[in-house]
Amino acid sequence: MRIAVIDCGTNTFNLLVADASHDAWSVVFQNKLPVKLGAGGFEDHFITPSRFVRGLDALCSHHYTLANYDCERVFAFATSAVRESKNGKDFIQKAKQLFSIDIEVIDGNREAELIYEGVRQTMELGDKPSLIMDIGGGSTEFIIADSTGILWKRSFLLGVSRLHDILKPEDKMTSENVSALKKLLQHELLPLKDALAQFDARWLIGSSGSFDTLLSLYFDKSKRSLSEILLSNEIALSAFPDIHSWLMGSTFEQRLKHPVIPSIRAEYMPLASYLVKYVLGMKTFEKLYHSAYSLKEGAMLDILKRIDWTVEGARRNVGLDDPESGSGS
Fold it and tell me: What is the C-alpha to C-alpha distance for residues 99 and 105, in angstroms, rounded to an integer?
């Protein structure tokens, strides 16, 4: 069965198309489109008109991709920007009306669970706890887990796009910007501090998003080819301070011109890097890892578990018994 997953995130709308069976899936196509859905609207809890249209434009592009790849089932998920906005339901209704795509709004706990499902496909977590960190645009998810499953999880309203809207940092981070960010994190991340005191996490694992860029910067600094990047990769803890120092001291234009920093992330990388630095300072971690998989890959695995793979079940799953069924069914 050919299945598509769309992750309607706060900064990007990510598409994953895969050929799937009851116990495995393989990538056919994937794409990320910049949207910045929440930009300018966090304080008012409102998707601004320009971002609303930009989100629909991205869904339109994904919609035609789905048709080109003959996807039998489409599953779409929306996270922080949609679930917390007053007009999030309007966006979902418009997506259904224009593209027959049903978007499921998931809460922070469910988001964290799917991120965990994604990460555990790329690496063995082992018997000792690890802390998984997913830096989004609207929220940041933390999951403490080991080989037995999730031990603790929580979603915090600390996504980099939200932080940028709240703090309005200068083009180049100032000491005042850093002081305000540190004060905010000290207050908001108290539950994480308590959880780390309870569960002795040995590794910090960053999933996708901003960690993709941190990994690319690490490879660039190490003179390694990006073609060597695997589904899971270690970022030497000793290398992180220099990367962080450059990001904090760089201007937006310098980041924009850097060959491995995507334009969508250039504005936010100092904030993301400081978030990582702050978490690394909360306890002594043995290793820092990057996982290429996150929510959409976790959702793909979860979908495979829930599909009825019998012959009759397959007919129902792909809508063969319902002539009215569309791509969003």
Answer: 17
